[in-house]
Amino acid sequence: MNRKNFNPSAIVNLTDWANLENADGMAFPDTPAKLRDLVSGDFSAVTSSLDHLYNNLLNDGVVYSATVPAFRYVTALLGDLPSRAALIPSWERGKFPLRGKLLTWLANVAFDVSVGQEQRIREWGKYSPTEPFPNFKDIRSIYPEAFPSVASHFNDSDLRVVEVALVVAVRFLESPALAVHRGRLTPLVENILASSSNTWHRILASQALNAWKKGRVLIESVADSISSEKYGRVCNSQEKGGSIDEPPF
């Protein structure tokens, strides 16, 4: 898909959801309906949609065929100006911003489909080291076209949003096509993530900067699986499970 066609409505409307699956089985009609509700502005609908992202499209680290277009849709929302306006509902004042929650989901999906995580799964399940898992590969293939949407939040007015946007961007740079952006991201990672109050953000910053200095892609060692599992997914020390204010939702 060309960047100029990275349109949220088109992604939902042109996807054959009946042939895709989420954690409950066939993705139609629930998944497309929940994705549309993200920009509804209705508190209950948005809450339900965020729950759907985590419980049905990223269930305990498992991604599904429907997660692929959903991932593309969420990144498209974050980069589409009319949609971004709808992602600032009146009721979120004082809460962790909805755009930050969507970036958090992207970051967690990107961690779970990362090359390092796939290596660990292969070790645990004793899979043969052949082709990448299809859904993992399909999601990672979206990174180049999705990167501008994420990068547009590097100057967000909320530092929490900036931090999680940088986390997503670091994950996206696993794509060789995006390695050219390392220089641009290095000072942001050094000045923002490396000095974050969030332990995981500081760990990721250290890992990324070390890898980039050596000319490598960020792939955590299998030997670091314990720390990677603990800190790999984006969280916040003030999270309250099930709360709309903080992820998980």
Please explain how this structure is put together.
Helix content is 55%, strand content 3%. The chain is mainly alpha-helical and 249 residues long. A two-stranded antiparallel sheet has the order 1-2. It has a two-stranded antiparallel sheet with strand order 3-4. A hairpin with a 2-residue loop joins β1 and β2.
Secondary structure blueprint with pairings:
Elements: H1 8-14, E1 21-22, E2 25-26, H2 30-37, H3 43-56, E3 58-59, E4 62-63, H4 67-79, H5 81-86, H6 98-112, H7 115-125, H8 134-140, H9 143-151, H10 159-172, H11 182-193, H12 199-213, H13 225-231
Q: Please describe the biggest sheet, giving its number of strands, its sense, and whether it closes into a barrel.
A: 2 strands, antiparallel
Query: What is the tally of helical segments?
Result: 13
What characteristic shape results from the CA principal axes?
globular
- N- and C-termini, Cα separation: 30 Å
Sheet-strand content, in percent, reads: under 5%
Let me know the number of strands: 4
Structural class by helix and strand composition: mainly alpha
The order of strands across the largest sheet is 1-2
Radius of gyration: 17 Å
What is the residue-mean pLDDT, rounded to a whole number? 87
Enumerate the spans where pLDDT stays under 50 for 5 or more consecutive residues. Answer: 221-231, 236-249
What's the helical proportion of residues? 55-70%
Q: Key terms for this structure?
A:
249 residues; single chain; mainly alpha; two-stranded antiparallel ribbon; two-stranded antiparallel sheet; 4 strands
